[in-house]
Amino acid sequence: MTMTTTDIWCVFAIVFFIIVDYVTGIAKAILNDTLSSQKMRQGLWHKFAYLMLTLVAYFIDMINLHVDLGLPVSVFVCTVGGISLIELTSILENITAINPKLADAPFMSVFANTNTPKHRKEN
C-alpha cells in the first residue's frame, strides 16, 4: 500500500488544519479567560474522530483498488476536503474572536456565508 502524492498532501492538510484549529482555539480560550480542560478534552476527542474517519476513508479507497465497490471518486480525498472545510470554518471563527477587526477585513468576505436569512434581507 503505497501512498500517492495526493494522499500525502491530504494527510498534511488534515494534520495542519487540526493543529491550527486546536492552537487558535486554545488562544481564543486564553484570551477570553474560558480555558477549560473538559472542553479541551472534548475537542481532542472530536479531532480523534476526524482522524479515525479519515483512516476509514483511506481504507475504503484501498479496498476499492482491489474490489470494485463502484466508487467513482476517492472517498479519502472527499473526506479530507470536508473535514478541512469544517476546520477552516472553526479557525476563522477563532481568529475573528481573537482579533475582531479581521471580521470586517475585505479578504474575509471570501469566507462569508451570504446564504443566511439575514444576508438575503440585506441584499
In a few lines, what is going on in this structure?
This protein is mostly helical and 123 residues long. It has four helices and no strands.
Describe this structure in words.
The chain has four helices and no strands. By secondary structure, it is mainly α. Helix 1 (5-31) packs parallel to helix 3 (75-98) and helix 2 runs antiparallel to helix 3. The mean pLDDT is 91.
Helicity level, as a percent range?
A: over 70%
Q: How would you characterize the largest beta sheet? A: none
The number of E-state strands comes to 0
The structural class is: mainly alpha
- Low-confidence region ranges: none
Amino- and carboxy-terminal Cα gap: 51 Å
Oligomer: single chain
Which shape, going by the Cα principal axes?
globular
What's the pLDDT, averaged over the residues?
Answer: 91
Q: Give the H and E element order.
A: HHHH
Count of helices? 4
- CA gyration radius, whole angstroms: 18 Å
Strand content: under 5%
Primary descriptors:
single chain, 123 residues, mainly alpha, 4 helices, 0% strand, globular
